[in-house]
Each structure stands twice: as structure tokens, then as C-alpha cells.
Specification:
alpha/beta, six-stranded parallel β-sheet, 11 strands, about 10% strand, binds uridine-5'-diphosphate, UDP-glycosyltransferase 73C6-like
């Protein structure tokens, strides 16, 4: 606990994207448990996703407040209601989205000006480089919250080829505007924290979004009926836009693998073509008892933490990667953009807890159903190689839990951060 006379106030500003909001919200809870006042900047539609955080804050007397700022969608060429990157219909709109975020600067400065207790520091996503200017103006330190791994950061610095905050599709056709944004992001670094071990089932059910299913959904009964480590969980995060043809190949691969699965098809990818194919194929009927499809937002942590889950077909987003590691689940890697290719190398080559589905970064072609089937069967079989992969994944899960315990490396790093801010405030 922080003593009263040194009351700290942390201002958290996440990029409005699930992979930033989720870990920064976890971090907010952790900070508040240390007695720190936390303010999180959000927008009206994103604020609705914080319902469970608000309930928990009230229940546990955590001092977390949400500050909601209007987000100018239509004025900047974004479709109405696109306040989160997961609702953008196309990656071509990333530039407009980042520019819309920048318009939050002035109203935020006005709010800080009127605050009774000035923030002790700002913790914000690297991509929101303009938050550095706010910190400079109010003479408070700013810490960059990284949602990518140290491994990916190091690789991208060494190769100097790509800024991992912006997806590939955008950086390959950068205008001068975007180039300058990228440059500022690079120069304007706290890492992703995984405090998921401390969360209760009720909390993770609706983590940063309303699940498309409720607690009573039959998937849980079904999972409970499955053998330990027998089910593959298939999910590609909150942002990916996947073609109908690719979705179809994945579906056919899952069907022919004969392995039990839960397959998440992200809301925007559930096109009429996908719906028609699923219904023409009678897909759900064909895999009944062996496979479940969830269309929309799934309670990923809840599913990954279930003992029946034995494999994770993932796009290698850093949060998903950490979640897979924390629950000791071997992975099939299906990266699509940005740091995901580095995360694949970490999972497959460094940690040796996964196998590749076979995507080549430079030469993106359709991953065929045979490749999906082969990877699933290779991961889920009971051969020596698979058993060793499972053993390594289990060891890493134990290490990640140790890191969060008192005297663990993550625990100590958070304490060091708080001490750092406290010293700066007192000087
Ligand atoms: N997530 C979830 N349900 C879904 C899809 C994603 O809970 O249906 C969560 C997932 O657990 C992770 C985050 O959303 O915490 C996705 O972040 P990640 O870095 O893996 O990928 P991105 O969304 O940035 O591609």
C-alpha cells in the first residue's frame, strides 16, 4: 500500500483496440490493488466494454475511474461507431483511426488541467505518441506500454524492417503522413503484463467485451464431457480480416482432422458467404458432438483455462501467445501480420512449444485444408515429440505463475515501476 501523503495517480491511455485495452485494464487493477488511484481514458462505446471492471472496482473498493472522451468517427472518415479497431471494416482505415485518436489530445489536456490531483504519470500505448506531448506539458513522466514481446522488439530493432505497432498492410503502402506517425511512435518503452492468473472465472467471462455466449452455453457442458487435453481451440484474435476461402479451408481442415474443436469466427468475418457455406455444407450438423463454432466474441481465457483444451490454433497475437503459455497449451502458429511472425519464431524455434501451419510472411498464400489437418494431427497426437512439447509448455506455465507471485520477476518489476514514479514525484 502507498501511504496517504504520497498518494499516486496513474493516468492510463490505451489505444482503442482489444489487445491494448485488455492488458492495460489488467494492469490498472493491479496498480489499484497497491492503493494507487487509476484513471483510464476511453470513449463512449468502449466505456460499455468496461462494465465488469467497474463492478469489480466497486466490489473491491479499487480506485479506478473511467474518463470518457468523444471520438470523432464521421468527421475523420470513419464509419459511425468505429471507436475500436476491432470494428473497422478494413485495414485501409488504420490511418484515419490513428488520426482520430490524436484529436483526443486537446480535450484530455483540458481535463487534466481541471483535475484536483494531477496525474503522477501517464502510461500509454506507444502508438499514441501525442501523449508524450501531454506529459511534457504537465511535466510528468510518461511510460510506454508495450503490447508486443521483448523478443519481437529486439528482432524488429535488429532487422529494422518493420514497425510492429502498425500492421503490414499499412506499412507497405505508407504515405508521408503515416511515415511521420511511425517515426514519432519509434521515438516517443513497460511491457505487456499477464496478470490473468489472479482473475476469477466471473471476471474473465466478459473480459473487455460482452461474450457472444453466456455461462449456461452448452460449450461448457460439452468441454466438461471431453477428455483432458483433447480439444483444439481455434481463434485469430480481435482484428484479423480473413477471406471466405481461408475460413472455408480452416473449416474443412478441422472437419477432416477428426479432432474435437472450438472454432471462433470473429464477428466481422461472419459474412453472408460464410453463413451460406456453413449452412449448405450442413457443417455444424456434420461435426455435432465433436466441434463447436462461436461466432463473435468468445471468453478466451475461460476456454483456454479448461482442462480439456490441449491445443491452440492461434494467429500469434502477443496477448493470445501469453495466454497460451500461461495455461501451458501447445500451439499451432498461423501468423498474419506485424509482430505475429516474430511471436511464431518464439513459440516454435525458441520455446519449442508449437508447430507452424506453414505460412510464409513474404508469400502469403491460402493455407489449405490438408495443411490445417496435418498440423492439428501432429500437435494433438500422443507421439514422443508431442509429449515433449506438452512437457515444455507445462514447465513454462509453471514459470509464468511463479513470475506473478511475491518475489517473482513480474511482481518485482511492478514494484520497481511504482517506486520509480514515487521517486520522480518526490523530487
Ligand atoms: N479475445 C477474446 N475473445 C475473442 C477474441 C479475442 O477474449 O473472441 C482476447 C484474447 O484473449 C486476447 C485479445 O483479445 O487477450 C487479443 O489480443 P491479441 O494480442 O492476441 O491479438 P489481436 O487482437 O491484437 O490481433
Amino acid at each position: 500500500m502507498i501511504s496517504k501523503d504520497k498518494q499516486l495517480h496513474f493516468l492510463l491511455i490505451p489505444l482503442m483496440s482489444q489487445s491494448h485495452i485488455i492488458p492495460l485494464t489488467d494492469f490498472a487493477k493491479l496498480l489499484a490493488q497497491y492503493g494507487i488511484n487509476v484513471s483510464i481514458i476511453t470513449t463512449p462505446l468502449n466505456a460499455q466494454r468496461y462494465k465488469s471492471l467497474i463492478t469489480q472496482s466497486l466490489n473491491f473498493n479499487l480506485k479506478i475511474q473511467l474518463i470518457s472522451l468523444q471520438f470523432p468517427c464521421e468527421e475523420l472518415g470513419l464509419p459511425k461507431g468505429c471507436e475500436n479497431m476491432d470494428s473497422l471494416p478494413s485495414t485501409n482505415l488504420y490511418k484515419e483511426f490513428f488520426l482520430a485518436c490524436e484529436t483526443l489530445k486537446q480535450p484530455l489536456e483540458e481535463i487534466i488541467q481541471k483535475m484536483e490531483t494531477k496525474p503522477s504519470c501517464i502510461i500509454s500505448t506507444g502508438g499514441l505518441y501525442w501523449t508524450q506531448e501531454i506529459a511534457d506539458k504537465f511535466k510528468i513522466p510518461r511510460y510506454v506500454f508495450q503490447t508486443i514481446s521483448c523478443f519481437a522488439l529486439l528482432c524488429s530493432q535488429e532487422t529494422g524492417t518493420r514497425n510492429s505497432e502498425l500492421p503490414n498492410e499499412t506499412t507497405t503502402k505508407q504515405s508521408d503522413d503515416v511515415q511521420s506517425v511511425v517515426h514519432q511512435i519509434k521515438w516517443s518503452s513497460i511491457g505487456a503484463t499477464s496478470i490473468i492468473m489472479q482473475q476469477k472465472m466471473d471476471e474473465i467471462m466478459h473480459r473487455s467485451n460482452e461474450s457472444s455466449i453466456n455461462k449456461e452455453h452448452s460449450y461448457l457442458t460439452w468441454l466438461n464431457s471431453m477428455k483432458p487435453k483433447s480439444v483444439v481451440y481455434v481463434s485469430f484474435g480481435s482484428l484479423c480480416h480473413m477471406s471466405f476461402l481461408q475460413i472455408k479451408e480452416i473449416g474443412l481442415g478441422l472437419e477432416s482432422s477428426n479432432v474435437p474443436f472450438i472454432w471462433i469466427i470473429r464477428g466481422l468475418n461472419v459474412s453472408s458467404e460464410v453463413e451460406k457455406w456453413l449452412s449448405d455444407e450442413n457443417f455444424e450438423e456434420k461435426v455435432k458432438g465433436r466441434g463447436i463454432i462461436i461466432k463473435g466474441w468468445a471468453p478466451q481465457l475461460m476456454i483456454l483455462s479448461h482442462p480439456s483444451i490441449g491445443g491452440f490454433l492461434t494467429h500469434c497475437g502477443w496477448n493470445s501467445t501469453l495466454e497460451g503459455i500461461t495455461y501451458g497449451i501447445p500451439m499451432i502458429t498461423f501468423p498474419m501480420f506485424a509482430d505475429q511472425f516474430y511471436n511464431e519464431k518464439l513459440i516454435v524455434n525458441v520455446l519449442q512449444i508449437g508447430i507452424r501451419v506453414g505460412i510464409e510472411e513474404k508469400n502469403k498464400v491460402l493455407v489449405k485444408k490438408e495443411e490445417v489437418k496435418k498440423a492439428i494431427n501432429q500437435l494433438m497426437n500422443e507421439g514422443l515429440e508431442s509429449e515433449e512439447r506438452r512437457k515444455r509448455a507445462k514447465e513454462l506455465a509453471i514459470m509464468s505463475k511463479e513470475a506473478m507471485k511475491e518475489r517473482g520477476s513480474s511482481y518485482l518489476n511492478i514494484k520497481l515501476l511504482i517506486q520509480d514514479v514515487m521517486q520522480l514525484v518526490n523530487n
